[in-house]
């Protein structure tokens, strides 16, 4: 039953861009109370969708081998970027449900599985000596919620495109990582910063007052 309701939720988000619990029950062909009985609340359903997406990404990442944690981190960033770029409508719908009402607590709940994943990635890098032992990985991952919240409202309303939104996320996040990295690893992170910085829109030139 859980899988049935979850699959119906994916279908609704993909096809209609919304996720109403009554519509979900009808799509899954179950009683109207069943989605609540299975997941407890819409918030937990959205978090379960996020967990499912993270598990899929993790499985695909594990199909490859990596020389070190930083290479895995970059691959995970690339995976995130490609999924958002390949299917922006679905992810806009998901985050519209998660943050359309400017409910930061809801957004954090939905993002929690993703933050847990990134915390694991950063811990691996720290253990391999890529980042400083003093690095507070949970603080760095928590910053992702704030970074995302800053761009998501404009993105879900299509005021900015997916590439710009990703650049707005990647540049400050990578700068945080650069700060925490040992000198040996910083050039690799700096290359990424330059790449994403070039995708940000150019700032308008100041007007010349004569």
Evaluate the radius of gyration: 19 Å
Task: Say what the CATH topology of the largest domain is.
Answer: Tetracycline Repressor, domain 2
CATH architecture of the largest domain: Orthogonal Bundle
Shape: globular
Largest sheet: none
- Portion in helices: over 70%
Tally of domains: 2
Structure commentary:
With 210 residues, the chain is mainly alpha-helical. It has two domains: 1-40, Homeodomain-like (Arc Repressor Mutant, subunit A), CATH 1.10.10; 46-197, Tetracycline Repressor, domain 2, CATH 1.10.357. Helices cover 73% and strands 0% of the residues. The chain is built from ten helices and no strands. The chain is globular, with a radius of gyration of 19 Å. The N and C termini lie far apart (71 Å). The mean pLDDT is 90.
Ordered list of secondary-structure elements with their pairings:
Elements (H helix, E strand, L loop, with lengths): L1 H14 L5 H8 L5 H6 L2 H20 L7 H18 L1 H12 L4 H24 L9 H20 L5 H19 L5 H12 L13
Keywords: DNA-binding
InterPro entries: Homeodomain-like_sf, HTH-type_Tx_Regulator, HTH_TetR, Tet_transcr_reg_TetR-rel_C_sf
Pfam families: TetR_N
Quick description:
The chain has 10 helices and no strands. It has about 210 residues and is mostly helical. InterPro entries: Homeodomain-like_sf (IPR009057), HTH-type_Tx_Regulator (IPR050624), HTH_TetR (IPR001647), Tet_transcr_reg_TetR-rel_C_sf (IPR036271).
């Amino acid at each position: 039953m859980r899988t049935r309701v979850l699959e119906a939720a994916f279908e609704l988000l993909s096809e209609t861009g919304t996720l109403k619990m009554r519509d979900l029950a009808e799509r899954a062909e179950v009683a109207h109370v069943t989605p609540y009985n299975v997941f407890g609340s819409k918030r937990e359903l959205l978090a379960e969708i996020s967990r499912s997406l993270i598990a899929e990404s993790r499985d695909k990442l594990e199909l490859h081998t990596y020389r070190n944690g930083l290479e895995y981190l970059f691959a995970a960033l690339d995976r995130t970027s490609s999924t958002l770029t390949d299917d922006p409508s679905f992810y806009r719908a998901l985050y519209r449900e998660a943050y359309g009402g400017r409910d930061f607590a809801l957004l954090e709940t939905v993002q929690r599985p993703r933050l847990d994943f990134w915390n694991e990635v950063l811990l691996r890098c720290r253990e391999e000596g890529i980042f400083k032992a003093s690095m507070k990985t949970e603080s760095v991952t928590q910053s992702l919620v704030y970074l995302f919240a800053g761009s998501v409202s404009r993105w879900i309303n299509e005021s900015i495109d997916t590439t710009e939104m990703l650049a707005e996320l990647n540049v400050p996040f990578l700068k945080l990582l650069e700060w925490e990295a040992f000198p040996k690893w910083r050039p690799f992170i700096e290359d990424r910063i330059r790449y994403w910085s070039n995708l940000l829109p150019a700032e308008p030139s100041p007007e010349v007052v004569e």
